[in-house]
Each structure stands twice: as C-alpha cells, then as structure tokens.
Design brief:
This protein is mainly α. Helix content is about 40%, strand content about 0%. A two-stranded antiparallel ribbon has the order 1-2. The radius of gyration is 22 Å and the shape is globular. The protein starts with 6 loop residues before the first helix and ends in a 5-residue tail after the last helix.
C-alpha cells in the first residue's frame, strides 16, 4: 500500500483515531445476558448458550474466515475445548472437565459444524481428525446420520456430516457404512420426493423417512436446503461463482414416460431438482421461505432462506438467488433485526452473502462483518476492506456521512488498525430438528 507520509496527513490520522476509537469497537448489538454464571471467555454472543453454543460459535468462525477475518485465539480455543473425549461435540458444555453422554449428549450437527469451523481456521488438526472419526464411527447402516448417535437418519444431520467431510478433503461418496456399504447419498436420495408427489413438492426432501411407508413423507424446506447443499459435495464455505453465476436450476422431469416414483437418476440431478424446488417455493412466498416448524404461523424463515441461498449458490445458481438475497437485505422484511446481536444468525447472513457473490460489509446498508465481530472477542486481524471506516459505516454497521475533511479511505484503514494496535477491546436451540 503506497501511503504519502506527509505531516498534514499524519496529523489528520491522529485526530481520526482519537475520534473513532470509542465507537469503532463498541458492542453494537447488546442482547440480554443469562442470569446464571458468567459466560466463558472466547464465546460469541451473550444469550444463554445451553443449546446452541457450539453451533453459533462455529458459524461465527466460518463466516469470519470466509471474509478475511482472523478470529481471536480465545474463540478458537473455546470451540476446540468443547470437544468430548471421543471426538464428538455437545450443544454446549458449561464444564468441559465433565464427561459427555455419548448417546444423548453429543450431536451430529454440532460436531459437523465444529469440524468445518476448526478446519477452516487451521491449527487444530488433531481435533478435526477426532471429529471426522466420530462422524464415521456413528454413521448408520443406511448411510446417514441422526441428530444423536444411533438415532434415525435425517436429511439435515446427514447433510451436515457431508459438509464436514467436504471441508476436510474427504469425498462424501467414499464414506460408507460398515454394514451394507451405504453412502450419505444413498440415504439422501431416498428422502427426495419424486413424480408421485404433489406437483409443488416434487424435488423436495423429507426430513426423515416416514413410518407410513413410501410416498407418505412430507416435503420439508429446511431439509431440502440442507440436502441441496450436500448434493453439491460442499459445506457452508466455498468459492463463490459470483452474482451472475450459472443457469436456472432444472426441475425434476416428470413428463411423458416419467410416471411412478420418477426419482432423480443420480446426485447431480437430485441437486438440480432440489434447487428448482427451493427457487419456486421462495418465489411463491415472495422471495423467501416460510417457517416449517410444526405449528408455526406463516412467517418468514430468515435462517432457512439464507440456507437456500447458500445451496443455490453452491450449485452455481447465484443469479437465481439474487431476489431472495435482495429480500433478506431489505430492512422492512426483518432479517437484519432478527440477526442483530446473534452471532449464529449474523454468521448465516454473512455466509449467504459471501456464497452469492455479494458484499456482507454492505448488506442493506449494514456491515454484517462488523456486527459479527462485535459479538465476540476482538479478532486477531481484519482485512482492510472489512474495517468500519473503510466501508463508511458507523459503530452499528450503518451507513454514515463522510465528514472527515476529505481524508481518503486508505487513511481510514490505517487509522482503524492503529486503534486496534493500542489494545481497545473488542442446533441446535433454534431447531433441535432444524438449523438456525
């Protein structure tokens, strides 16, 4: 970076740092703290982590790494320290010295998310290897995974496991069950609805196999978003194709001669059909998914919509994801309010924007990266394009007027790093059977 070292500029920089310091690292999105013991050092968020501590920490680390933020060592240490002796992860361990319950206290989703996050930030090879070994050990005979070890296989947990394998360089197609040699895709494709389903549900995935028999399983939007990503052999983070990437997904072919079950012939066709279902469903509801929780009112599912955007982008359908992404960015629709102060939700939005080739630092006038960083310990480093001043945002990530007497963006960037240098501090609950 070429910086003109004039006395005038340095004087302006000094004033800039003094003015910006109190606001730059303020807690921009406070949320109620639990009334119990103080939260551990390194944990993101201030809400009770009982169910989602590992999940939200993993999403936060993944999102930061995806946009060039180096997380604090304490944040990485906390997540790694949550691992159980056998390699699995619970939703949250208030006392890591206490042994885990291997049958009920460990979760596939939490383990898979933690593996992805720790693999991304690096330096935790043995922890990652133990997590991958745990996943392989608890694969069901049908090729899938349940939420807990030995539980009935479901699309969400199986897809999460696929993401962990993909993130660690393991081909999911080569991960086979000890009995029968089934792969995760054997399980997933068996949960996809074919041509015998209702027209509006073809290509969707069920959450789990219905005990009523073939043809009775119900379409589940969150399961479909998770499976659509898994069929691409990807986890939450991948190299984005860009805003204009790819063609529209192709729906399941149920034309003449395609009657009966009419299921996709393979993984690629399954992914296309799932993506087409998601695109059509979001368009029907106004560019977003509705909550699929049992008994829930017809209300937007922000996390599910973000998942669908990530899945579409993974299949190089980011152009198709443009409208849902635009919908999420509109303040009037509530996604920004929903995510404020919540590291897991903020992480989802950052990952969705990143996957679709958008800028999470300018998301509906909000710097999501700055908001995410403010929910946990101060990062080790932040890329220049992620600094508050460089992006023209105030302490809450909102757009602000430039009233700095024409001082250039490069001086803003240096100023923020000077402030950082002087030491200014910085699912499972939403789902049980669904992700954030």
């Amino acid at each position: 970076m070429n910086v003109r070292r004039s006395a005038t500029a340095l004087a302006a920089l000094a004033a800039l740092c003094t003015a910006a310091a109190p606001a730059a690292f303020a807690d921009v999105s406070p949320s109620p703290k639990p009334s119990g013991p103080a939260l551990p050092k390194g944990l993101y968020g201030s809400k009770d982590p009982k169910f989602d501590g590992v999940w939200r920490q993993s999403l936060a680390l993944l999102a930061q790494d995806a946009v060039g933020v180096t997380p604090a060592k304490s944040a990485i240490d906390w997540l790694a320290g949550q691992q159980c002796e056998d390699g699995g992860f619970a939703g949250y361990r208030a006392d890591p010295a206490k042994a885990c319950d291997p049958k009920k206290g460990e979760f596939t989703d939490a383990t898979a998310a933690a593996v992805q996050a720790l693999a991304a930030v690096g330096g935790r090879g043995s922890t990652v290897e133990k997590g991958v070994a745990w996943l392989k050990k608890h694969q069901n005979d049908d090729g899938g995974w349940g939420m807990n070890p030995g539980g009935p296989s479901d699309a969400n947990s199986t897809s999460a496991a696929v993401g962990a394998f993909a993130a660690t360089g393991t081909d999911p197609k080569g991960v086979k069950s000890a009995k029968g040699g089934k792969t995760p895709y054997d399980l997933l494709l068996g949960l996809q609805l074919g041509c015998d389903a209702k027209k509006g549900e073809r290509g969707a995935f069920a959450y789990t196999a219905d005990k009523g028999g073939a043809g009775t399983a119900a379409a589940n939007d969150l399961a479909t978003a998770a499976a659509a990503l898994a069929t691409q052999g990807k986890g939450f983070v991948f190299e984005p194709a860009g805003k204009d990437g790819g063609k529209a997904p192709e729906p399941l072919d149920c034309g003449a001669g395609k009657g009966g079950s009419g299921r996709p012939a393979g993984v690629e066709e399954a992914g296309q059909a799932a993506a087409a279902y998601l695109a059509d469903t979001m368009a029907e509801h106004g560019s977003h998914l509705l909550s699929s929780m049992p008994g829930a009112k017809d209300q937007p599912d922000f996390g599910g919509t973000a998942d669908a955007i990530i899945a579409l982008a993974a299949g190089e359908h980011s152009a198709t994801a443009a409208k849902p992404l635009q919908w999420l960015q509109s303040a009037k629709n509530g996604a920004l309010a929903w995510a404020k102060g919540d590291p897991g939700a903020l992480g989802k939005l950052v990952l969705a924007a990143h996957a679709a080739g958008a800028d999470p630092r300018s998301f509906g006038g909000v710097d999501l990266v700055q908001r995410l960083n403010a929910t946990g310990p101060k990062p080790e480093s932040v890329s220049a394009s992620g600094s508050r001043a460089d992006s023209g945002k105030d302490a809450d990530g909102e757009k602000k007027d430039d009233d700095n007497g024409g001082v250039g963006g490069v001086w803003w960037t240096v100023g923020v790093f000077m402030v950082a240098g002087i030491g200014i501090g910085f699912l499972l609950s939403g789902r049980k059977k669904q992700q954030l």
